[in-house]
Design a protein that fits this description.
Layout (H helix, E strand, L loop, with lengths): L3 E6 L7 H14 L5 E4 L2 H5 L4 E3 L7 H8 L20 H13 L2 E8 L1 H17 L4 E6 L15 H19 L8 E7 L6 H4 L14 E3 L7 H14 L2 E7 L31 H13 L2 E6 L3 H4 L6 H19 L5 E10 L2 E9 L24 H7 L11 E2 L2 E2 L13
Parallel strand pairs: 1-2, 1-4, 4-5, 5-10, 6-8, 6-9, 7-8
Antiparallel strand pairs: 2-3, 10-11, 12-13
Length: 416
Amino acid sequence: MKRNVIVGQSGGPTAAINSSLAGIYVAAKERGAAKVYGMIHGVQGLLEETYVDLSAHLKNDLDIEILKRTPSAFLGSCRFKLPEVHKDKELYDKLFAILEKLDIEAFFYIGGNDSMDTIKKLADYALVIGSDIKFVGCPKTVDNDLAVTDHTPGYGSAAKYIGTSVKEAIRDASSIELKKGQVTVIEIMGRNAGWLTGAAALAGTEEAEGPDLIYLPEVAFDLEAFKKKVGALLKEKYSVVVCVSEGIHTADGTYVCELGASTDYVDAFGHKQLSGTASYLASYCAGEFDCKARSIELSTLQRAGAHLQSEVDILESFQVGGAAVKAADEGDSGKMAVYVRVSNDPYQFATAVHDVHKIANEEKVVPREWINGDGDYVKQEFIDYVTPLIQGEVEPIFVNGIPRHLPKPFTTAKTV
């Protein structure tokens, strides 16, 4: 690399997204990039010419190590949907003019499905106008729903957090015996794919039982069947723990959270905000069984838990960032770096690149054969898939008893 490169982060953050950022920065500098710019709040910020020179924030190896351990999006994220070229050609021309002014050789975007759509559109437009800028995607999403890649950066750490948190919640719920029993419903992220919720099964270990029921959005939710299952369990034990994806829905497509109070908020990509599934089901159980019921919503904690990072996840996330840089340096554009599982026992992986046109706007869900017949638990195949991804720990760098994170290069104050 002889010119400059630029990198941005988009979509929901993870505990490993900054490890990929570190991987891109280190690889780009090693390959000769003059400057590595960081977009503040992704493409949306770039259009406002808001960016930083990352060398001013990553001054030494310690900064790199702290960045790997810093949760959320260090550069700031966005949910900005690039329009089709024919609807706003001026926007594309403005964006490319900014990139030309910065003498950009390669553009990297760390994100999920919608972010890969951005890479696809920009790479296609570069071909139309004859630009030599390379556009390469770096995968990221706790949802683990990107097509082609075996798994995604951030998923292993989120799965580790979920398995640990559910195990602790089960322990807590079973500490007090109540005559009428109690039901604890834990809500886990996952709109259409249940990869995160399935990880709750990891709570079942040699010395501890896992959740009693696990419901994923891949199988339609039956409220009557749920009632029968919980009722039968309450006759056998005094504490029942149920884990549910936020996106579970009935056979007619109605989200369970819509059966109770719900929000009408919709983001730029048309995604309706899902919340309240556990709250509704806990209230339902309290009414049906006259028992104590509690709902727990892991919400953003499951993607921000850098204190429970998986070592495998952080190492892989750093390496896939480097793989994206290698691809661009070797002339690839319109591609995304992916993981390939070489072996499961012992676990081995490799990186590769794949055409982003076959990844953007596609969605990988949990195979139906990895879910039991009743649709209320995952099978051993799922556990075998996720277990290698949560191995090892990354020790936070503590200062005065609290983990140290790298200071953000932007302010959260509103501008007038």
